[in-house]
Design a protein that fits this description.
Blueprint lengths: L8 H14 L5 E5 L6 H16 L4 E6 L2 H16 L1 H7 L5 E7 L2 E4 L4 E6 L11 E5 L10 H15 L10 E6 L7 H7 L3 E4 L34 H11 L1
Parallel strand pairs: 1-7, 1-8, 2-5, 2-6, 6-7
Antiparallel strand pairs: 3-4, 4-5
């Protein structure tokens, strides 16, 4: 709460695409965003409280490579919902129930819910209207063929078919590329809508999404959010990566 907010056009792009998912404009969305660019705050924390203002009966299942991280995001989202600021504005629309209110699974009085899980975690027997994967790969193990394959198999065998309504439900994956053979490559191959926002702009990789949000940068190498991750930070990241 004491960290100054640093805005950037990329946050608007992420939020606009997440709004399109809730509105049913996008059914399958892949967001490729560098680390520390507010992607998890937008997707794993703020999306649930925002969506429930409009659709308190919406059911979401949110997963990550780490169960602890997924639950942490769920707790922060619940704190936002229960805050005086939020309740004074939208508390009349719904409440979190008292009989189903634990960190990894809480429900609204309008029968919406949020389930938090992890890659490899229990999803059998559960479903949702929105399936959200936030960082499905652990970057510390992504160069392990076995670990990477396990994540991709979890998506194919357990995650993809968890929609309550396969004709209207939506799937979202938000991550950074960590390997040429990661889950993002599979999702692009099966037709996911892609919003790709690299830290350093490459005009040859510019993608304009179907809802009409092109990358506004023009110069090769132009940074995504220099006020947050500037030239010095980028150079240091490149040196460490070598």
């Amino acid at each position: 709460p004491h960290t100054p907010f640093v805005d950037g056009w990329h946050i608007g792009a992420i939020c606009r695409h997440l709004e399109a998912v809730i509105a049913g404009e996008l059914r399958q969305l892949l967001l490729l965003v560098p680390p520390r660019m507010t992607k998890s705050i937008c997707a794993s924390i703020c999306l649930t409280p925002w969506a429930w203002i409009k659709r308190p009966g919406l059911r979401l299942m949110v997963g990550s490579y780490s169960a602890g991280l997924s639950v942490e995001h769920a707790v922060i989202a619940r704190r936002l919902i229960e805050s005086v600021w939020y309740q004074s504005r939208w508390g009349a629309a719904y409440q979190i129930t008292t009989d189903q209110n634990v960190k990894a699974f809480y429900e609204t009085t309008e029968r919406g819910y949020r389930i938090s899980t992890s890659v490899g975690g229990t999803v059998t027997g559960r479903g949702a209207d929105i399936l959200l994967l936030d960082d499905p790969h652990n970057l510390q193990t992504i160069y392990s063929d076995a670990e990477r394959h396990a994540t991709k198999e979890f998506y194919k065998r357990s995650w993809h078919n968890r929609l309550n309504d396969p004709e209207r439900g939506c799937r979202v994956c938000i991550m950074q590329r960590g390997h040429p053979d990661d889950l993002a490559g599979d999702l692009m191959a099966i037709g996911y809508e892609v919003l790709e926002l690299p830290n350093e702009f490459d005009p040859t990789r510019r993608r304009a999404s179907s809802i009409g949000w092109p990358d506004p940068r023009e110069a090769p190498g132009e940074l995504l959010c220099p006020a947050r991750f500037g030239p010095a930070e980028t150079a240091a990241m490149i040196r460490v990566g070598r």
